[in-house]
Write a structure and sequence with these properties.
Blueprint lengths: L3 E2 L2 H7 L11 E3 L13 H12 L13 E8 L4 E9 L4 H14 L3 E2 L19 E5 L8 E11 L2 E12 L2 E10 L3 H23 L17
Antiparallel strand pairs: 1-3, 2-3, 3-4, 4-9, 5-6, 6-7, 7-8, 8-9
Helix pairs in contact: 2-3
Length: 222
């Protein structure tokens, strides 16, 4: 699935599973999914950097922090799903969720400053003006920020979903850039809700004990 630096219990509790994701997605390596994208607004740019900072591939990643990473991709229509779960020092998860909330508040529209054919090519968006819409999320999280930036393209929907959720010191970051239409969009929302419920349930049980794992499990890179 992706780089793993936490015991199987965490993966069972909160990780994306093949049956969760919309049809056509394949396992991928952990990745900084927004790397190279440069929104013109500084708050929008900060939000995307915060997602990538949670990746195990980030230059700012703390290797001593227990963490797990899962990623999936689909080639056509192009889309990517990434999930990062970290157990952070006391107070740090709350700070990150607050920072994400501030960035979202200051970013009503993601504009990449380019024009051309509309859509997502698997590497970046080539149409300006992805508009913000709040996403509802299940009750139970200590704190959560869920947002969608999207643009209609005929009967298609492309854009990105970003979720930051906290349970105690555990931080979950989920991002889904790409094109989702019809049943794919519905399954995306179901997937997000399911993962958030698992995170809350794991916290309730308090049976997930995170300890760093000495190695990583490599997976094919798209």
């Amino acid at each position: 699935m992706a780089a793993l630096r936490a015991p199987a219990a965490l993966m069972t509790a909160a990780a994306l599973r093949p049956e969760d994701v919309p049809e056509g997605f394949l396992p991928a390596d952990d990745q900084e999914v927004f790397r190279g994208m440069r929104p013109s607004d500084p708050d929008c740019a900060r939000l995307l950097r915060m997602v990538d900072a949670a990746s195990g591939r980030s230059s700012s990643a703390d290797r001593d922090v227990p963490q797990s990473h899962v990623a999936y991709y689909r080639a056509d229509p192009a889309a990517t799903l990434v999930e990062h779960v970290l157990r952070l020092p006391s107070g740090e998860a709350a700070k990150r969720v607050d920072a994400a909330r501030d960035a979202v508040a200051g970013c009503p529209v993601i504009d990449f400053g380019r024009s051309g054919d509309s859509g997502w090519d698997g590497h970046g968006f080539d149409q300006t003006g992805l508009e913000r819409r709040r996403l509802s999320h299940p009750e139970g999280q200590d704190d959560a920020v869920a947002v969608r930036y999207s643009h209609p393209d005929g009967d298609q929907r492309y854009g990105l979903d970003v979720i930051f959720a906290r349970e105690g010191s555990d931080l979950l970051v989920l991002a889904a850039p790409g094109e989702f239409a019809g049943d794919g969009e519905r399954r995306l929302r179901l997937m997000e809700a399911r993962v958030l419920r698992r995170l809350a349930n794991a916290r309730d049980r308090e049976k997930v004990v995170l300890t760093p794992s000495p190695g990583e499990t490599p997976t094919p890179r798209p």
